[in-house]
């Protein structure tokens, strides 16, 4: 992600002396709430919890990613996990890394970029034990919105940058 000078300053500024202490603390609380929201997101992805997954999104929230396409709104997001993801994967495990979150001045919206290291076991009738294991490296480009004082995901764009097959010997049927 190439940053312009304004973005670089916003993400690396050591102090916000232009804000009073209450506003500075509120900004820190918002940033932490967004990090927690993204952790909930992957926490609902891995056990394939469709209701939990959809609950972290805004009502008109969007998830888009590669071959999976785009899903908009609670029902589409829920069905995406309940059907498409559950049908393809035995299990997944997401590790989120390097969160970069930029909060708007009015603290009502934010953007974020996260790296992800994802272990995946997929259904595959041609593989030993009917399963294939891969490790994926991805980046999430997210938009967040505050609704009635609660942070929600407005948009997720997932981009897989690397996908490596793993030796299946470690899979226990």
TrEMBL record:
Every SnoaL-like domain range: 27-157
Signal peptide (UniProt feature, chain positions): none
Protein name: Nuclear transport factor 2 family protein
Gene3D superfamilies for this protein: 3.10.450.50
Species this chain originates from: Microbacterium bandirmense
């Amino acid at each position: 992600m190439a940053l312009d000078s304004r973005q670089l300053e916003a993400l690396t500024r050591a102090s916000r002396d232009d804000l009073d202490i209450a506003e500075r603390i509120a900004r820190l609380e918002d940033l932490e709430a967004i990090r927690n929201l993204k952790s909930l997101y992957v926490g609902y992805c891995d056990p394939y919890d469709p209701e939990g997954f959809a609950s972290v999104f805004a009502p008109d929230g969007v998830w888009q990613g590669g071959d999976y396409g785009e899903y908009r709104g609670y029902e589409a997001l829920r069905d995406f996990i309940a059907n498409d993801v559950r049908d393809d994967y035995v299990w997944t495990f997401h590790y989120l890394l390097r969160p970069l979150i930029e909060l708007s001045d009015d603290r009502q919206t934010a953007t974020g970029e996260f790296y992800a290291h994802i272990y995946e076991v997929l259904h595959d009738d041609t593989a030993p034990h009917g399963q294939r294991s891969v490790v994926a490296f991805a980046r999430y480009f997210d938009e967040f919105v505050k609704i009635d004082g609660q942070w929600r995901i407005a948009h997720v764009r997932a981009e897989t940058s690397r996908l490596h097959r793993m030796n299946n010997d470690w899979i226990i049927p």
